[in-house]
Amino acid sequence: MKISVIVTPKKNVLDPQGVAVGHALESLGFPKLKTTRVGKLIELEIEAVDSPEFRTRLDQVCKDLLSNPVIEDYRYEIVAR
Amino acid sequence: MKVAVLQFPGSNCDQDAFHLFASGLKVNTKYVWHKETSLGDADLVVVPGGFSYGDYLRCGAIARFSPVMKAVQAFSQQGGVVYGICNGFQILCEAGLLPGALIRNSSLEYRCITCALKVETSNASFNPNFLGASVKLPIGHGEGNFRIDEAGLARLEANKQVLLRYENNPNGSLSDIAGIRSEAGNVFGMMPHPDRAFERFHPSMDGLKVATAVLATKFPELLKHTA
Amino acid sequence: MSKAASQQSPRDPALGVAALLPPNPDPLLNQTITPELIRKHGLLPDEFELICKSLGRQPTLTETGIFSVMWSEHCSYKNSRSLLKGFPTEKKGETKDYGRVLVKAGEENAGIIDVGDGWAVAFKIESHNHPSAIEPFEGAATGVGGIIRDIFTMGARPVLLTNSLRFGELSSPATKRLLRGVVAGIAHYGNCVGVPTVGGDVYFDASYEGNPLVNALCLGVLRHDQIRLGKATGVGNPVFYVGAATGRDGLGGAAFASRELSEASAADRPAVQKGDPFMEKLLIEACLEMMAVPGLVVGIQDMGAAGLTCSTCETASRGGAGIEIELDQVPQRETGMNSYEIMLSESQERMLVIVKKGREKEIEAIFEKWDLHASNVGTVTDTGRMVVKQHGITVADIPANVLTDQAPLYKREAKEGEWAINARKWTPAALPDLDAKGVEAALSALIASPTISSKRWIYRQYDNMVQHGTAVGPGSDAAVVRLRLGDAEKFIAISNDCNGRYCALNPKRGALIAMVECLRNLACSGAKALAMTDNLNFGNPYKPENFYQLSECIQGLAEACRFFDVPVVGGNVSLYNESPAGSIDPTPTVSIVGLIEDEKHITRQTVSTSGSRLILLGGAPHELGGSQYLGLCHGIKAGDAPEVDLNAESLLQTFLLTQIKAGRVIAAHDISEGGLMVTVTEMLFTPEVGAPNALTLGAALDLSSLSASRLDALLFGESQARAVIAVSSVVEKELLSLAASVGLPATTIGEVNASGVLSLAKGSIKTQWNVAALRTGWETTIENAMRRPGLN
Fold this sequence. Notes:
Largest sheet of chain C: 7 strands, mixed
Helix content of chain C: 25-40%
Strand content of chain C: 15-25%
Number of strands of chain A: 3
Largest interface: B-C, 44 and 36 residues
Distance between the termini of chain C: 66 Å
Oligomer: heterotrimer
Number of helices of chain C: 26
Low-confidence stretches of chain A: none
């Protein structure tokens, strides 16, 4: 299966990259932005079967390695079998 | 005392830290490779700067899973003294040995400059008495912007865990925080480099004093250098 | 021709498929070599004829690709080699203690110079102009990565980087994009790999619009017995490939459009190489560890552009041997790569290592330790040929030395361009001289002009302190770095220079000036020059005016090298630097490394206390041609470049060094862009360490004793062989008389004070500046131009 893990800065954490991108968009004449946040997309391809146990392990690596819970949130999508 | 300087793939201030202790403070210092599972007879573990594992994913995120970090966790739980500089600070935060996290500088640019730092009067585990109000240390980082939630910050301040603050904040750090210690007082981390401020031709020689202030409570023999 | 080859039956030549090689496993590579294909590979019809003659048959498409790379200007120097022969590659004078050339220019990836006590330095500069124009971040980053590999492949540990950058006018949005990208790219790579970027030079000029120059230098340190060469010797010795896997990187930039070679969409291919500094850091450590094992490494070479091609044929040719490799053993990042793609790939962070037979396990163990792969891809043979196989089928079979040494050499037509001839005729006769108001405005403008202003915005993004050896970092005449040599230490200085404006007006003089200014910078820092590396950046050599510039500049550099007995230990030629508006100003960038015998001799360009006397050495400046003042204040790029008198330069530099060694000099700064007033002003800008300086220095200048026919030329002219030194009042008289005794003009022009005001008197002309205001202009020009909203 293919898993897309999306890691974003927590809502109340300063995101300097987001600020820069937001300003750049506005300087291109793009409508005024409420927020711009820059995160990461991590694509995993794996031979495994989706199961509650698998999800538990996936959550664990998302918390331990792929995101830093102090500053980041994560979510994932299981995209294809 | 015996000092162990950790080496991860991508550590590049390992020699700097080694010489701060070996040549500057003249203590017995050795390197410990990241694949080691034991710290040997070390009394102090130094986690040096650099770009461990390329700082890919997040600074310090991958290094914390190195075999040697398991030993460092155990060492610190038994009260062993751990000192992280720059990338070492980032690794200790990622490993949960220090609170908070370090994100990209607010300028989005790497900064290599010498900073004036305000010395915080702290409790017994940090001995700044001979530092004066301010010291000068170089910084060299792209991700030194210290972040922590409100409750965490309140706890840091209440416990006097902040060691140094920037006089002119170079990276956007919350409350100008440049270095902190753990609540228990045996784990220390800072973005500024004492390992770039200990030779005659360096921008300052305050690195010797700062390292001593951090460590002298546990290792009083270091105080001879401040005499 | 080898026996095996002669036994094969020739194919029908009409098909255009190589006569004596079997068909390539990829049918796409078995196509007819048409004149169109030859042209697309950048080969001339005559060159193709020569290739056929050397091979005794038509080359295959893979071989054509291999030739196109090896016979390109980048690898063969075919348009410049005949000129480069004029460079001295060895030191003529006494080299008892240090200064001996251990590895000469052109022999290896980098030259090596003895610094004494069994230690040596390897250094070289290389350009990455075109990749940086396309993709500034990756282009500049991989430029740094490439030059670092050139150094550690010699066995040296890289200890410093510098760079020489040229951009269009800072006001242009394109320049800002390129500057931001290039600086971030250099920072990304150098910072991560842990080699300090300690210095450089940056000029902004419209001639570089659209064609920036990115020249990167690396210097490494090693013991004499650690020198490793890129030679394949010992028949049967295994050939290892180490480092990153090969992908289709950079093929979009290859002469032949890769789209035609495989069905994979061209959109999937990166046209520029992407660097991985983390991989490079591991490679440095693993390779140095491997080279430290006695007798294990026979030869080693990095893989740069078309790395597998270059490294195999060059090591074979140098060793007088052959090499046979099997591409199936080459680590590949993508599936389905054919021989053309693998041989021409520009993937980064790869090395070729020839290992002593029977000791394969040792190298594998070292690379294992660093989590890297070492793959045995072939063997050294005695055929003198580079034989490449894929799936066991020979896909290329070429005598190695034909690729490396037999590219045709050209001497193109050289004729000076009309523009330069006319521009030199300019005289200041029609230009009104400055009054007091004009003087005041001119200095304020010059000190804040992008080329002269502080490059702090750039160098604070570079880690210039890692390895804790930086004694004088970026922003002084020369950078000074302490080398830790076992238990001993030595200090070396390095400086880069080249004023393209002078070279455009008078190429030979411009090149001489690049050399003498660089040497002067070293002398001001207290260093004695050891050797030089150069990066020749020019336009299309087929244009006679460009070839004239190339030829004249090389003559100028060579003349200065011989005069000062500074050998050339290597360099790089970058031609075809053109933008729609025309060729760049000729830019023969010079970098010279010097040795400082004693730490006490390290001298900076700034003063830090009041009271010292400022002494002008070399006499009053009097020329305006080619000056920044003319360009900035009058929009004129004309006149002749300043005169060069090598004897006067030598006299000045010897005096500077002697006085520095005698401890009489507090600070020394040469006169260059912006002239005398800019020099003095910059001397007052004491570096701020962490906080503003306690006192703002000023100076009271009285130039009344200097004779000058024009005030503008005296204050802002860029006459050569001049410097300003700060000395204590106690030694002032003695120093002046010592200068007089050797025939060096020396005049006290003023005194440093703590007033925060720079004042100037010249006869009836009196004016003054607030030093803090000048400093703000100087420090913030580039920062303000590069500021991004919302960020600080």
